[in-house]
Amino acid sequence: MHSTAEENYIKAIYKLSGNGANAVSTTGLSDMLATKPASVSDMLRKLSAKDLVHYVKYHGVQLTEEGQRVALKIIRKHRLWEVFLVQKLNFTWDEVHEVAEQMEHVKSELLVQRLDEFLGHPRVDPHGDPIPTEAGELPEMEQRALASLEVEQKGVVCRVKDSQPAFLQYLNRVGIQIGTQLQVVDKIPYDNSLEISINKNKSVILSSDVLEKIFVINP
Amino acid sequence: MHSTAEENYIKAIYKLSGNGANAVSTTGLSDMLATKPASVSDMLRKLSAKDLVHYVKYHGVQLTEEGQRVALKIIRKHRLWEVFLVQKLNFTWDEVHEVAEQMEHVKSELLVQRLDEFLGHPRVDPHGDPIPTEAGELPEMEQRALASLEVEQKGVVCRVKDSQPAFLQYLNRVGIQIGTQLQVVDKIPYDNSLEISINKNKSVILSSDVLEKIFVINP
DNA sequence: ATAAAAGTTTAGGTTTGTCTAAATTAAATT
DNA sequence: AATTTAATTTAGACAAACCTAAACTTTTAT
């Protein structure tokens, strides 16, 4: 089995690489994991010896097939637990990440299967992120960043790509959640921010940073 | 916060001491935790420095008040998760211990509160062990070991004091679970085993080892 | 009461995962 | 193309939690 530390590295590599596609840098990982680059080098040697990553010194890492399988299993567990916390224990979407971060490391195949069943095989977690299937598939849905909408265009929020409580609490304050109807009212070319009407109700101005993290369907 | 290793020592001390009453020996702990006595000495020094135990070299340990509070919190979490696994995820009573052993270390006050609520504030876990309350009370019920019943006496199984899968699977085979009605048919003085009728149905002979681990009410 | 046995602790070592500081390699700039 | 800068790796240390072997207490038994 893999240690919690190893699992966290694998998850970080997976996320930084854009779902396993590209190679990832040592500093990128040290930033994401809040460790020093030297520690990352150490761990990459170790993961490489276990054939979980392809590692070429000074040229970054990529997950092996096995590494990707492991990554998807952890992410599956993380997202299933998030669904559990929100749907069954009435957590809010800004409270779940930290707890799921711990639960994802519990080792039991049976537990994951039964949890999935208990939750009714959910397809997405409370942030709209897709849940990898038991077979290791990660079905990506059609969706676009709110930043890409033009004036007048509409969309329904289906995903937010940032699980930090501060960001999610900001969205709560603004009134944005999964399922919220949005429409672009105006574009401010100066900084690429957009004025967005929320549920045909009030309207707010969202910075381009925020716009890149909110995803919508039916554009 | 306390590490998983520290929590496991605290739990072991609590259990070996008979819920905190008596002092516990180094070898007792090393047996229970499957470590060497030398490792136990190290850890006891550490726990003592944190004021979680009273430790007098060569004369055993006891939990401090704080240590007991910590122990009860861990046991509360362990038993709540066991209830969850059995009642919500359809685990059998012999499958839950190992998984709960991992889940008990997840740190989140909110999680424990909400889980307790979700489960309807259960009083006992799937083995009949009482669940410490949020306030740190451990309500012990009236019950006696099956070994103490005389011929003809009846009882209803309310608790089994051994969570090892092998033991629980043995009980499954014999047909004993929580709620099962038993009656002592005969006593074999040679080895203190008893012939027990199960649900007024078949009858089996149980060794005194086993009889000490099964608890009943309505004697 | 003393010697042997049993239990416990200390000393010194290992592994995992981290760190700092120094050395090395790659990338960017002139 | 050479040199500066940035990124990365190696070397050497450290804390946690474990180990073995040796030393020390306590208990037990003669």
Automatic annotation (TrEMBL), chains A, B:
Please list the residue ranges annotated as the HTH dtxR-type domain. 1-64
Q: Where does it live in the cell?
A: Cytoplasm
Give the superkingdom in one word. Answer: Bacteria
Keywords carried by this UniProt record = Activator, Cytoplasm, DNA-binding, Iron, Manganese, Repressor, Transcription, Transcription regulation
A cellular component term from Gene Ontology for this protein is: cytoplasm
Q: Where are the transmembrane segments?
A: none
The GO terms describing molecular function are: DNA binding; DNA-binding transcription factor activity; protein dimerization activity; transition metal ion binding
What assembly does the database describe for this protein?
A: Homodimer.
Q: Of which family is this protein a member?
A: Belongs to the DtxR/MntR family.
Task: Describe the function of this protein.
Answer: In the presence of manganese, represses expression of mntH and mntS. Up-regulates expression of mntP.
What's this protein's name? Transcriptional regulator MntR
Q: What is the lineage of its organism?
A: Bacteria, Pseudomonadati, Bacteroidota, Cytophagia, Cytophagales
